[in-house]
Amino acid sequence: MRQRSSLDVGIGKHDSMLLCLFFVLLSMCPIVRAQRLGRVRGSVTDSSGAAVPRATVQLKNQRSGKLHLTKSDETGHFELLGLPTGQYTMTVIAPGFARFVRRNVTVTAGGEQRQEIRLAIASQDQTVRVNASATQLQIAPESNASAVVITGRDLDALSNDPDEFQSQLSELAGPSVGLGGGEIYINGFTGGDLPPKSDIREIRVNSDPFSVRNDRLGYGRIDIFTKPGASAYHGDFSTEYNNSGMNARSPFLVGVKPPSYHTWLWSGDGGGPLGKKASFYVDLQHRSINRANLVNTEILDSNANIEPYVATVPNPRLLTNGSGQLDFALTSRNTLTVRYDYFTIDERNNGIDTQALPSQAYEYARYHHNLQISDSQVLSPEVLNTTQFQYLHFRDVETPQNISPAIDVLGAFLGGGSVNGSLDRHETHYELQNYTTISLPNHLIQFGGYLRAIRRQEDDTENFNGTFTFNSLSDYQQTQQGLNNGLTMSQVQAAGYGPSQFNITAGNLSASVNRVDGTLFAGDDWKLSSHFTFSYGLRFETENLISDHADWAPRVGIAWGLGRGANTRTVLRAGWGIFYQRFDDDQMIIAARLNGINQLTYVVAQPEFFPTAPPISTLAAASTSLPTVYRIAPNLHSPFDTDTAVSLEHQVSRTTTVSLTYINSRGEDQFLTNDINAPLPGTYNPSDPSSGVRPLGYAAGNLYEYQSAGFYRQNQLIANVHVDARRASVFGYYVFNSAHSDTAGVDSFATDPWNIRTDYGRALFDVRHRAVIGGTFALPLAIRLSSVVMANSGLPFSITLPQDVYGTGIHNARPAYATASTPPSNVAVTQYGIFNIAPGSNDQLISPNTETAPANFMLNLRLSRTFGFGGEGRKSHGGTGTAEVVKSRRERRSEALGGRGLSTGGGYSLGGATNHRYALTVSISALNVLNTVNLAPPIAVIGSPLFGRSLSLATGPYAAQVGNPVANRLINVGLSLSF
Which of 551, 867, 889, 907 sits in a 20 to 30 Å window from 761, CA-based? Predict the structure, then answer.
């Protein structure tokens, strides 16, 4: 008999049980219906209001722990149905955005919860918490009110020229601590070139200063994040132009025909989707800068008479920058970003400056490749892991136009052949980072680290042509007149003139260095209550090529919301930490090149062979030649500073927050350079260069050693203000700064090699007062005004002597104050005091940086107007801030903070907003609109005929155009087309 299968039979025993179970469940349906489940629906947008598609939305039942998941659609909307009643924790995750967490979302029986989610931009580790209300003070450590976040309309207030833009950013960041100053990070990496402004989505300044992730204190830190792709195609094309006829000339252009010059900037960018899971963004910028260098000093004419010399030399530059970025949503929990940047510079007549004559000119070219890869994985609703890699390669080439010996007349000019020589440098950087963030109800845990490797190789002929040094223009004049009259150099020297020194370098052209450094860190933001967060963490740092291989850096901090209730109006913050500074490959390559084996420098005091340099073999055999080498001290330590900060933040109104911060910094083991074989104290006579008892003997010469023997003390008081009103956005700060130190950095030489504390005094970075305020204002007729005002009280500078007082080959000594016993021949009467210009071993030198250069002030303005055409578009574009759209304060604040991700908006490089499909923006900007004359520090070498005079305009942010000293006010006109 055929065995029956289950398909042949009726209802068996098991089937009867299943059928009974079915009827039991069916009978329970009225009960389930009686419970009436709830639902949650809403939308996910970025900070500009654009939809964020494919965002992961999670609801976790706070009692049962059950997880409900969905994704937002192409319009950013989502819906979760059939949710049991109760309390839920909502988490929203999207690539490129900070994780959004909202607790205590209540689901009621038969009810519908509407949730409007606005995502904020993530920092590179994507752990920035979204503020409940962007205008409300927050307790989270990264939400310090002293931070400045620049994007959209606030970004428009800064220059479009990348050089000026970077200079303004450095001033906007304000002073950091110590000698190192602030740093610029691009997508979390250092070493790259600043991208075009149109390629930037957000800039964060001074955010979370005591974060355990940061190697340096956050004050002065600048984080730049570039644009990703978008879910809708959009783009910009812009151009900006100025020429000499539009600008105000430098007041130092006296007696010369003003040069003709221009700058023309072209930029294009665009982005959009690549299928459903990818997007792209590309940017191309080209700059043609036909500027001029200005020489303004005194030289000798053909008859060896002193005469003023003012000249302009064309200094054309071509710069091209191209970049592209791809964003891939590999899975709902995995995002991959790949970015490539190419940058090239071609420049002629570089090296010419106020006192560097046209013969110093050299051609310069740079080629730069930068690849960045970032992979972010959501390992669980609480855990985010990010791995990042950077490959950076660049080549620098310098070609001098004159290779005759250089002539350095202290306090007057640098002439003859180029001191830079030829250079061909190849440098490759590899950096791997991995960061993990764990978000728990009361803890935000971070841990990770990075490993960096730098390979640098260069062929360098710096100073292979040799340099003759004269202590004064008078000495040089008397020498030339004597030679013109047929005297020999011996006779000239017998009369007390001639060069005081000749130095030349010889040996192998090539040198290389391999530098490796790395760090590990772990930290936790512990939320002890809704009004109090305690942060703590520890870093371990190390690097090769120095003896110090283990540096530990603890960090602690608190954020305390004063008062009661959900809306905290006052927050008290305090932090303490240790921060290290790494030994740079610039000094490593010098020590590898000028080590006495690879290359050797010969120093000859009072040479008798001017103006012709003898063969190297002759100098090597001469007993008067001092060999000079560089080395890294065997006990070199990484410099560190111990920083303490206390700040009080207050929300004055719904649109205004202010903060006051005090920072105390104590720097130890600071870098400097010292001659460890200098003549012992009291044994050297400057009039007899061969005198002096050297510890290692005269034949050993000068041994310049990189040491970590300095220190500094610094106090700062910083006041910040943020205003975000309906028609205005304003940010700014004021800093009072007091700093004292005994070193001016790793390349600064100790004046007295045997008493470094002689150099203790006002620090080079002690700019006593500094203020910056910027903002954007909506004017009638849809015109937008953007402005930045910058001011400081002037840079400190030192009065110096032209003599080599200590026998080190370095001309950096300072005078002593004259007394009643000072011989009249040694007395110099100046506007800064009466000095003893020939101090003895028992005379106390004046402190460094006793004087202050002229104060600086700069007002920059930009006016722009956007015209929309072509029908209504999906979103406003062509900029932000001028379209007459009524928005909540929270929306306006979020818009000021910017957005990231698959947004649908267009670019905003130059102008205001419009809802039309196309936007044409017209702009005009003025740098130094008031035509303020900002002067550079004066010549401070006693004995110079130019002593006490400023010969040029200030540089950096107080120059109308960086690198163009012939313009005092700059006018730019621009056009931008967005779609």
Answer: 551
**Token code pair at residue 660:** 């006051």
**Inter-residue contact 376 to 343 (CB < 8 Å):** no
Q: What is the dihedral of CA 463, 465, 466, 467, to 10 degrees?
A: -90
Contact 355, 297 (CB under 8 A): yes
Copy the structure tokens of residue 397: 């080439």
**Residue type at 640 in one-letter notation:** F
**674-683, 756-765, 838-847, 867-876: lowest mean pLDDT where?**
867-876
Quote the tokens at residue 431: 């950096």
Q: What is the rounded distance in angstroms from the CA atom of residue 68 to the CA atom of residue 58?
A: 6
Structural domains of the chain, ranges and CATH numbers in brackets: 37-118 (2.60.40.1120), 234-860+929-978 (2.40.170.20)
Neighbours of 713 (CB within 10 A): 15
Radius of gyration of the chain (CA): 33
Say which DSSP state 86 is in: E
Chain-centre distance for alpha carbon 773:
19
Label residue 16 exposed, middle or buried (CB < 10 Å: 0-12, 13-18, 19+).
exposed
Q: What angle do CA 558, 561, 566 make, to 5 degrees?
A: 140
- Listed range (177-181, 447-451, 845-849) with the worst mean pLDDT: 177-181
How many angstroms separate the Cα of 684 from the Cα of each of 458, 677, 811? Answer: 37, 12, 15
Q: Would the pLDDT of 282 be above 60? A: yes
Contact of 48 with 903, CB cutoff 8 Å = yes
How large is the average pLDDT for residues 845-872? 91
Task: Check pLDDT > 60 for residue 34.
Answer: no
How long is the chain?
A: 979
- Residue 415: how many CB atoms within 10 A of its CB? 22
How far apart (Å, rounded) are the C-alpha atoms in residues 70 and 39? 12
List the one residue out of 715, 811, 222 whose CA is nearest residue 500: 811
154 — pLDDT class (breaks 50, 70, 90): low
pLDDT at site 686: 87
The amino acid occupying position 13 is: K
pLDDT above 60: residue 49: no
3-state DSSP call for residue 119?
coil
Q: Which residues contact 52 (CB under 8 A, 6 or more apart)?
A: 44, 45, 46, 72, 76, 94, 97, 119, 901, 902, 903
Q: Write down the pLDDT at residue 887.
A: 33
The pLDDT assigned to 121 comes to 56
What number is the average pLDDT over the span 409-419? 95
Q: For residues 683 and 690, what is the distance between their CA atoms, to the nearest angstrom? A: 11
Output the six-digit token pair for 342. Answer: 């190419």
Residue 467: band (very low, low, confident or very high) from pLDDT cuts 50, 70, 90: very high
> Which segments within 884-945 are labelled E, that is strand?
914-927
Residues ≥6 apart with Cβ < 8 Å to 148:
172, 203, 204, 205, 206, 720, 722, 731, 733
Count each helix (H run) and each strand (E run) in the chain, helices first: 8, 46
Tokens encoding 479: 């020498």
How would you classify the pairing of strands 510-529 and 38-45?
A: unpaired
Q: Residue 368, CB half-sphere, CA atoms under 13 Å: how many?
A: 19
- Residues 472, 495: Cα–Cα separation, whole Å: 15
Instruction: State the distance between the two ends of the chain, measured CA to CA, in whole angstroms.
Output: 80
Q: How far is 294 from 250, CA to CA, in rounded Å?
A: 9
Return the number of other C-beta atoms located less than 10 Å from residue 529's C-beta: 10
**What average pLDDT does range 379-389 have in this prediction?**
89
Please name the residues in contact with 459: beta carbons below 8 A apart, sequence gap of 6 or more. Answer: 422, 423, 424, 425, 509, 510
